């Protein structure tokens, strides 16, 4: 199982980024997927999730209305479109195989998002 995040970077407040998570080693279309972030000195925060058929999604209150999760089962890839970014969105963003997260599950290596003037 491999999960490889990309698309992070440094952006000014109000800017946008699109994260991607390329997966391999399992049947992507059979698993719900999540995005989880961890800011320096803080615990993980479950940001968003999407079910296998893209018919059900979850967003944390902190990102609702600004972030959009999506997936392309043909490309085995998960996405997170992040708009109206705020400094408090600064974190290492991970994709996770499943709905929610568990430390013992499958995680990517993370991609850093920094929102700063």
Overall description:
The chain is an all-beta fold. Helix content is 0%, strand content 48%. The chain is built from no helices and 10 strands. It has a 6-stranded mixed sheet with strand order 2-10-9-4-5-6, with no helix packed on it. The chain has a 4-stranded antiparallel sheet with strand order 1-3-8-7, with no helix packed on it. It is globular. The mean pLDDT is 96.
Chain-wise SSE layout:
Layout: E1 2-6, E2 9-11, E3 17-24, E4 33-38, E5 44-50, E6 57-59, E7 67-72, E8 77-82, E9 91-97, E10 111-115
Parallel strand pairs: 2-10
Antiparallel strand pairs: 1-3, 3-8, 4-5, 4-9, 5-6, 7-8, 9-10
Order of helices and strands: EEEEEEEEEE
Instruction: Tell me the distance between the termini.
Output: 37 Å
Tell me about the largest β-sheet.
6 strands, mixed
In percent, how helical is the residue content? under 10%
- Using the CA coordinates, give the radius of gyration: 13 Å
Global outline: globular
- Count, helices: 0
Strand order of the largest sheet: 2-10-9-4-5-6
Class computed from helices, strands and strand pairing: mainly beta
Q: What's the number of extended β-strand segments?
A: 10
Mean pLDDT: 96
The portion of residues forming beta strands comes to over 45%
Low-confidence stretches: none
């Amino acid at each position: 199982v491999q999960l490889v995040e990309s698309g992070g970077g440094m952006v000014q407040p109000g800017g946008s980024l699109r994260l991607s998570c390329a997966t391999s080693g399992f049947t992507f279309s059979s698993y719900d997927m999540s995005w989880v972030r961890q800011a320096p000195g803080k615990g993980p925060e479950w940001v968003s999730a999407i079910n296998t058929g893209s018919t059900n999604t979850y967003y944390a209150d902190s990102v609702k209305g600004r972030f959009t999760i999506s997936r392309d089962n043909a490309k085995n890839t998960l996405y997170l479109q992040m708009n109206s970014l705020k400094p408090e969105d600064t974190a290492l963003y991970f994709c996770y195989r499943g709905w929610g997260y568990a430390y013992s599950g499958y995680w990517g290596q993370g991609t850093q998002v920094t929102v700063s003037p």
